[in-house]
Amino acid sequence: MTDLVDVILPLAIRDTYTYAIPSDMPMPDIGSRVLVPLARKVVIGIVLRPHSAPLSPGITIREVIQLLDPFPIITTPQLKLWQWMSSYYMCPLGDVMAAALPAKALDHHYSMAESKRRRVVIDHFNGTTIPKNALNTPQAEALRNIYTQFESHDIVLLQGVTSSGKTEIYIHLIEEQLQLGHQVLYLVPEIALTTQLTDRLQRIFGTQLRVYHSRVSDAQRMEIYRQQLLDHSPRLIVGARSAVFLPMHHLGLIIMDEEHESSYKQQEPAPRYHARAVAAMMASHANAKLLLGSATPSIESRFLAERGKYGFVTLTQRYQGLQLPAISLIDLKQQYHRKEMYMHFSDPLVLRIRQELEQKKQIILFLNRRGYAPYIQCTQCGKIPTCSDCNVSLTYHRFGHTLVCHYCGRSYPVPTQCPECGGEMKLHGFGTERLEEEVSQLFPEARVARMDLDTTRKKNDYEHIIRAFSNHEVDILIGTQMVTKGLHFDDVSLVAVLNADALISQPDFRSYERAYQMLEQVSGRAGRTGQQGAVFIQSFDIEHPIFRYVCDHATDAFYQAQIEERHRFHFPPFYRQITLTLRHGNEERVSQAAAWLQAQLAIIFGSRCTDVITPAISKIQSLHLRSFNLRIEATSNLSKAKQLLQQQIDTMQSFPAFKGVQVLPDVDPQ
Ligand code: ADP
Ligand code: ZN
Questions:
Q1: Is a pLDDT exceeding 90 seen at residue 460?
Q2: Which ligand 1 atom sits nearest the alpha carbon of residue 315?
Q3: Cβ–Cβ under 8 Å, residues 251 and 225
Q4: pTM
Q5: Rounded to an integer, what distance in angstroms lies between the CA atom of residue 205 and that of residue 291?
Q6: What residues form DSSP beta bridges with 66?
Q7: pLDDT of the residue at 503
Q8: How far is the CA of 60 from the centre of ligand 2 (A)?
Q9: Residue 114 predicted with pLDDT over 80
């Protein structure tokens, strides 16, 4: 008999690899890091299963080279979660491992046993804490309701309008959990949000707070991970999506703020997980509670709350009875017709911005597009330059004077004339960079900052912009969706949405839901203290039904309308969706593979399997794409369906004609 171990390697190929334990090595515990040979390299693996077997002659099994730490670095609950993710999201365990571990854990020179004594507490902390705020009557009632709901539910949805004080309620729950000796995980959708929250939470929880997300340095991430592994003290972890991978002990509560946010879903690479589903699983394994919070809950969560699967608590008033902002729709058709536009600003918007500036108020301008101009086009032949690796049009960036592909990041020189016909090239559309330029021309006296992907590439960029705006060093903040999520500024009196049409024109069953959430959330940044705020929405289509809901802040009515549509058209939450995307460098091959797979699945699943489509962006990074959907009744056996699906994928991939075609299943796509 030989001692063997099945090891997870951070590779997207299969779940485990088997190695032999050398006779002079003790059997490693489950969850330990080991160094193993793979082809001509050495890699780090995690021990999943020790076993022993007689070795058949002629079969050689390679040996584990080294046991890296004197203790397991993955806890049993973590491993259980990895296995759930791998099976639910249809990806190998190796994909989960690669996503879950901090980069340094994949470096075999790093030992978990030795502390590098890095600071894990945040720099500005001055060492003194202050007590939390007392709750007002509606907040206190909501808190009592949450406790009551938790008696009979593991998951509670708190639907509280923007600025109702949801964060204050979370603080009360957190304090109680810490006093009970528990750990708390507090998830936020954007790193930008952790910046503001960190200040607020640190004043109350001091050194019990840790912040974990992708902008935290590798060394610090590793140290936080290590501390979570070895030190079971009560603690509050604030983090973005990837914080669900930390080891937690005595987990009492997970708070997921802005639970409707689609950035909780990882799109690329696998595992394509939704942090809400993972958090629910984590809480259930640990016997902990999960609180979902939002002013505009996802249709799915609201549905589960209506059905009694989740507890449901509402908070309908803003703190101190402030009114929700007054919303004005501006008809761009009419404005252009009357020639009452200043660049991309309507006349009423310009006047209002001037007024607010005179009163020393602050303004947020929201535009869902970064760069200067979304595309350039030849005035003679109509040619639009596209990326040679992805078939998407290139965005013009004035900074650096380049054309950039927003899919792969590749940049190109700007042609002085059309490469096809020599005609003149013209800029089309507008992005945040151009908006910034227009603002400085229209309001030269105003101090302006821009927050988008291009201005927040470095570690502390978010912090600088948010601080500057909070400290009134900036009058007008321009931004993409980053500025819409959960940020709190005292003196923002006006929020303007420059081009609302871009939000509603997406061809996707979730596009109205997303547009509504975004408009309601961005409005929620206005008038958070003192007077009622104002929101100006510019659109070419002001009759669009979505604006009625937005103007009335009619979240409940909007939900009713959406849920009926979802039911009628067989969409989630009534049906579970799995999107299958096939990918290969050869277009013919991927197209045939997709046709074959779809035909097989249509035999099994009938009309639950949609036709193959060529996605609007049909090539990314030189790989051609085809896709289709499976929609399975929510009441049916989903794991059985996934099994049947996986069998067909495996069969397809075993045909030489389809060699190398990748299949990317996306379970519950966003
Ligand atoms: P939400 O999370 O619902 O958007 P916040 O918790 O950020 O709302 O509250 C909005 C503002 O009102 C914050 O500045 C917060 O400090 C203040 N606030 C809310 N409730 C209270 C309270 N009970 N005591 C003091 N300030 C409060
Ligand atoms: Zn590209």
A1: no
A2: 3
A3: no
A4: 0.93
A5: 19
A6: 35
A7: 87
A8: 44
A9: no
List pLDDT tens digits, range 398-444.
999 999 999 889 999 999 999 999 999 999 999 999 999 999 999 99
CB 166 less than 6 A from any atom of ligand 1 = yes
Half-sphere exposure of 625 (CA within 13 A, CB side): 19
256, 281 contact by CB (below 8 A):
no
DSSP 340-393: -EETTEEHHHHHHHHHHHHTT-EEEEE-S--SSBSEEEETTT----B-SSSSSB
Q: Which residues contact 48 (CB under 8 A, 6 or more apart)?
A: 5, 6, 7, 8, 16, 30, 79, 93
123 burial via Cβ count (<10 Å: 0-12, 13-18, 19+): exposed
Q: How many CB atoms lie within 10 A of CB 386?
A: 16
pLDDT digits (tens, 9 = 90+) for 211-246: 998 888 888 899 999 999 999 999 999 999 999 999
Mean pLDDT (the chain) is: 93
How far apart are the C-alpha atoms of 305 and 376, rounded to whole Å?
Answer: 47
Kindly state if the Cβ of 196 falls inside 6 Å of ligand 1.
no
Ligand nearest to the CA of 390: 2
User: What is the distance between the alpha carbons of residues 525 and 486, in angstroms, rounded to a whole number?
Assistant: 8
Neighbour tally for 272: CB within 10 Å = 22
What does the pLDDT average to over 505-517? 87
Instruction: State the pLDDT at residue 118.
Output: 60
Is-contact 478 451, C-beta < 8 A? yes
Task: Tokens 């069969």: give the residue.
Answer: 651
AA letter at 669: P
pLDDT of 280 reads 98
- Check pocket membership of 300 for ligand 1, CB cut-off 6 A: no
